[in-house]
């Protein structure tokens, strides 16, 4: 191994600082460059294992959690009803053509959604004629009603329709297309029952899974409302899974930011107190910063998009790299050249880094892209930090650091520690005890519902439930899925289910409403059946003449009607293609998913009370009620199983690597026992406290194990030499205090994810430190 | 569209400040309630609700009725330019809509009255026939009269 010692030995303090600042500058530029190319995706699907069950596939490939969870419920308040209605209208105008939204519904529209081109098809789309014939009696009753309409305040509305549509079939259709339980209307738009809030339902194109897309959508709505409201008073409230995830994401970010600031100040103070050199905080941060950037860069280079969770987990895991420069600083002292002290540490440091990297490499065999990214990130990061500490830092550090071995206070501490016995039997008992507690503690071991980690405030949930009922919005958890070979059989199936669901709805107590694709486009079979019931031109003309004769209408008014019926009778039934460009297409696309070889019809449910009954109805019709919550939890389980397998393999590899590096079983035991025991103790404590473990606990456990490995390696490395022991003690105290500071703050966070990671790592640091001293440390020679 | 003008009888009620009820008694029964920007038409137990924003002339009618009955000239002037002529015994108010959407559909409204009594509203749409609403004494006097000329005279109190 050759070092550029002669050059560095001549570096003056000014040059060293300049180089350190240059390094920082390079990092800033690199960070900027990477951030420009970084395609950070929040799409959870990339982080999950590939779907296996049909429910998982539906969840992952097609739904993004289902139509219900892409729906944002919007309530406008804080002004009189006319103003709110005007805002609701303006909001719809401004968002309806935004590509980020599938539809924006506020109760307006209806007739407008029925295009002139499709008008004759009303007789194929509407169910009216399923129970009615277009005969003289029906027409007469309808025409009498139209006369009364013309004498009513609605005359202006009805008059233009009468010549072509005397049965007002277009209005009947518009009503049929209303949401199942549409809210009340005031001033033409939806309001809540109290009439205080204007309501809108907006479906995003972005999946519920996609926090970035949801944030974008939520911001777009907020901005549009700001524009609409201007400087006047008024508030907008968004609800729904997307809005919640955005709100919680923001809260987490704010809290993490606050914690980050306190951490930074604390770390700076800690490092200054430990080394009495103001450059140490800067130099100590450089390897970790380099590690983060190297990790990001490597992932960006090897993968198409970087997952947000990779970054979050990755930065947590490379936290261990912060310790590398600390060990170096604690061993650097006057009279020893930096290159010499770093070279003395290098075998130990390299053993730690190499075995950790080998362990992380097992994530490669997990077959989950998110985990592979995590492996690349941590391996690249840790290797970079270690190499930077070994080959760059010695050139920059001031050689004349205080020698911790000269500190009397540290010596007193060491002497006290030296008197503590190291009974191996006690550790075995402790391990068995921990296993016992972890195993027998009551309560479920794992928490699979990731949403429980980012809980929605109770009042927000209550508000959401209220809005959902008012708007008749679909259930977030359940949806009926019907798989079919083609569109026609999917639509026929949808009609079958709809008929059964309607029965159940009318009986009451099962569900409040539902939405199915055939509601917007009946199957070709149904359209043909309706065509067959339409009278031929002569018959219709005769019935119409007979009907008109009994009314004040002139005889020549209804030619357009006769033409429309004849067009409908001869028309080719509508298929999804024909609806292109209409608002109907948007509704249909959300419920009829067409893929290469198959079609999935979705029936969304509202006000669901009896999932079991609906599940039976679905099963009888050859479909199934999909429980999206259950599907997403089963994905989490699959993911965790992969992680656990990888971790098992990692543990074996780690033990082998340490054994090979340290060459003797007794040294390997000293190094591995503390982290293994710590892991057991953490598990026992968490389980005893009734904590249900999540993926985030697992990641924290991995970090804790990595820290423990390093502490133990260095304690073991110090051997029985008193001064070496003092320097190592100093380094490990600084390292563990730094980690403790960061994670203890996370541990008191109000956000369960941060709390999970924080408490786990805090526990791990304390246990690892104590056990490292008790197990890994060699009893020192008092004669030294 | 119709062979003869439609003639219906009934009454207008204002149960409260914000509500206008139009109850038709003959030749069929129908009740329209206009309130909060919505009109609900009820006929033989079946109700249909629609927004006044889709029928601006109704909005104008509701507003002007309210303003007329409560004597709120300012409210009336928000919607129409007002031109009054005649004497206290025989007066006419011409209302021309200010709002462009309303003006596109409604030409003008003429209100005819005697003293404190509003006797007749003539609504002239941009398209279609003149609509005449005889009220109070004029409505009572119109019973049994079918002649168009006589009805016009009754309305205008000639």
- List the strand order in the largest sheet of chain B: 1-2-3-4-5
The CATH topology of the domain at 1-37 and 276-402 in chain A is Multidrug efflux transporter AcrB transmembrane fold
Measure the end-to-end span of chain A. 31 Å
Number of strands of chain B: 10
Radius of gyration of chain B: 16 Å
Assess the beta-strand content of chain B as a share of residues: 35-45%
Explain what the structure shows.
The complex is a heterodimer of chains A (784) and B (158). Chain A has 784 residues and is of the alpha+beta class. Helix content of chain A is 62%, strand content 8%. In chain A, strands 9, 10, 11, 12 and 13 form a five-stranded antiparallel beta sheet that branches. In chain A, strands 3-6-2-7 form a four-stranded antiparallel beta sheet, with helices on both faces. A two-stranded parallel ribbon of chain A has the order 1-8. In chain A, a hairpin with a 4-residue loop joins β11 and β12 (599-606). Chain B starts with 8 loop residues before the first strand and ends with a helix. Helices cover 27% and strands 42% of the residues of chain B. The radius of gyration of chain B is 16 Å and the shape is globular. In chain B, the strands form two sheets. Chain B has a five-stranded antiparallel beta sheet with strand order 1-2-3-4-5, with helices on one face. In chain B, strands 6-7-8-9-10 form a five-stranded antiparallel beta sheet. In chain B, β8 (106-114) and β9 (117-125) form a beta hairpin. The model of chain B has no long low-confidence stretch (mean pLDDT 82). In chain B, α1 (56-70) packs antiparallel against α2 (73-79). Chain B has a domain at 78-158. Chain B is α+β, with helices and mostly antiparallel strands. Chain A binds chain B through residues 81-82, 85, 145, 147-148, 150-154, 156-157, 159, 162-163, 185-189, 195, 552-554, 557, and chain B through 1-4, 6, 8, 22, 24, 28, 30, 32, 34, 36-39, 41, 43, 48-55, 57-58, 61, 105, 125, 128.
């Amino acid at each position: 191994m050759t070092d550029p010692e002669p050059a560095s030995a001549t570096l003056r303090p000014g040059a060293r600082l300049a180089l350190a600042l240059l390094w920082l500058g390079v990092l800033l530029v690199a960070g900027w460059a990477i951030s420009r190319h970084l395609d950070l995706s929040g799409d959870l699907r990339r982080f999950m294992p590939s779907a296996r069950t049909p429910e998982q596939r539906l969840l992952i490939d097609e739904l993004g959690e289902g139509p219900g969870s892409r729906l944002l419920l919007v309530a406008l308040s804080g002004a009189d009803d006319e103003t709110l209605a005007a805002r609701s209208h303006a909001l719809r105008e401004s968002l309806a053509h935004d590509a980020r939204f599938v539809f924006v519904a506020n109760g307006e529209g209806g007739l407008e959604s029925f295009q002139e081109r499709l008008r004759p098809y009303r007789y194929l789309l509407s169910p009216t004629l399923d129970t009615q014939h277009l005969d003289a009696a029906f027409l007469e009753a309808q025409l009498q009603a139209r006369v009364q309409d013309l004498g009513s305040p609605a005359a202006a509305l009805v008059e233009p329709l009468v010549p072509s549509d005397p049965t007002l079939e277009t209005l009947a259709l518009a009503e049929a297309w209303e949401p199942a339980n549409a809210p009340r209307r005031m001033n033409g738009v939806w309001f809540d029952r109290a009439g205080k809030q204007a309501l809108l339902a907006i479906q995003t194109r972005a999946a519920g899974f996609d926090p970035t897309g949801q944030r974008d959508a939520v911001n777009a709505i907020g901005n549009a409302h700001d524009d609409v409201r201007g400087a006047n008073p008024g508030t907008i409230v968004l609800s729904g899974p997307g809005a919640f995830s955005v709100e919680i994401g923001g809260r987490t970010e704010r809290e993490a930011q606050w914690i980050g600031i306190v951490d930074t100040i604390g770390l700076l103070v800690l490092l200054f107190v430990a080394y009495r050199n103001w450059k140490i905080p800067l130099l100590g941060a450089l390897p970790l910063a380099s590690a983060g950037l190297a990790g990001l860069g490597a992932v960006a280079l090897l993968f198409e998009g970087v997952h947000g969770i990779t970054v979050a987990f990755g930065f947590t895991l490379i936290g261990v790299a912060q310790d590398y420069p600390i060990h170096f600083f604690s061993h650097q002292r006057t009279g020893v050249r930096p290159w010499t002290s770093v070279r003395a540490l290098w075998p130990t440091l390299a053993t730690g880094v190499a075995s950790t990297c080998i362990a992380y490499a097992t994530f490669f065999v997990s077959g989950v892209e998110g985990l592979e990214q995590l492996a690349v990130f941590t391996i690249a990061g840790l290797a970079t930090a270690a190499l930077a500490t070994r080959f760059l830092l010695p050139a920059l550090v001031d050689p004349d650091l205080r020698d911790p071995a000269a500190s009397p206070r540290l010596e007193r501490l060491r002497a006290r520690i030296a008197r503590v016995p190291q009974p191996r039997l006690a550790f075995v008992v402790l391990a068995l005890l921990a296993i016992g507690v972890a195993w027998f503690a009551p309560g479920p071991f794992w928490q699979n519902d990731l949403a429980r980690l980012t809980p929605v405030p109770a009042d927000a949930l209550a508000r959401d439930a209220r809005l959902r009922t008012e708007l008749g919005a679909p259930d977030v958890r359940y949806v009926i899925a019907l798989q079919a070979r083609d569109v026609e059989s999917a639509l026929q199936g949808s009609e079958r289910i709809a008929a059964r669901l309607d029965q159940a709805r009318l009986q009451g107590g099962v569900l409040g409403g539902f939405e199915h694709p055939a509601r917007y486009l009946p199957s070709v079979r149904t359209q043909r059946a309706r065509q067959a019931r339409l009278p031929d031109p002569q018959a219709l003309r005769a019935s119409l003449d007979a009907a008109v004769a009994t009314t004040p209408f002139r005889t020549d008014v209804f030619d357009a009607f006769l033409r429309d019926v004849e067009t409908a009778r001869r028309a080719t039934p509508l298929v999804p293609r024909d609806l292109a460009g209409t608002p109907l297409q948007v509704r249909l696309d959300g419920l009829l998913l067409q893929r290469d070889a198959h079609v999935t019809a979705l029936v969304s449910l509202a006000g669901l009370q009896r999932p079991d009954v609906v599940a039976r109805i679905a099963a009888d019709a050859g479909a199934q009620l999909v429980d999206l919550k259950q599907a997403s939890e089963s994905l989490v389980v699959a993911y965790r199983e992969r992680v656990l397998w990888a971790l098992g393999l990692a543990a074996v590899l780690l033990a082998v690597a340490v054994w090979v590096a340290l060459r003797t079983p007794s040294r390997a035991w000293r190094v591995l026992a503390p982290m293994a025991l710590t892991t057991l103790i953490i598990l026992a404590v968490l389980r005893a406290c009734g904590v249900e473990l999540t993926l985030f606990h697992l990641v924290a456990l991995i970090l804790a194990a990595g820290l423990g490995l390093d502490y133990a390696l260095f304690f073991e490395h110090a051997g029985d030499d008193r001064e070496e022991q003092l320097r190592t003690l100093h380094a490990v105290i600084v390292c563990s205090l730094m980690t403790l500071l960061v994670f203890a703050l996370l541990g008191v966070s109000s956000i369960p994810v941060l709390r999970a990671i924080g408490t786990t790592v805090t526990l791990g640091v304390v246990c690892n430190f104590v056990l490292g001293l008790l197990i890994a440390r060699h009893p020192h020679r008092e004669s030294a | 569209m119709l062979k003869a003008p439609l003639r219906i009888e009934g009454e207008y009620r204002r149960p409260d400040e914000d509500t206008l009820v139009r109850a038709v008694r003959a030749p069929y029964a129908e009740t329209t309630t206009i309130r909060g920007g919505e009109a609900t038409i009820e006929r033989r137990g079946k109700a249909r609700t629609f927004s006044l924003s889709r029928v601006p002339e109704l909005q104008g009618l509701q507003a002007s009725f309210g303003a007329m009955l409560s004597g709120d000239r300012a409210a009336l002037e928000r919607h129409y330019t007002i031109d009054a002529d005649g004497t206290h015994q025989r007066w006419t108010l011409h209302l021309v809509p200010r709002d462009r959407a309303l003006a596109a559909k409604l030409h003008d409204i003429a209100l005819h009255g005697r003293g404190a009594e509003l006797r007749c509203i003539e609504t002239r749409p941009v398209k279609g026939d003149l609509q005449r609403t005889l009220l109070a004494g004029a409505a009572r006097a119109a019973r049994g009269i079918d002649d168009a000329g006589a009805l016009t005279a009754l309305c205008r109190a000639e």
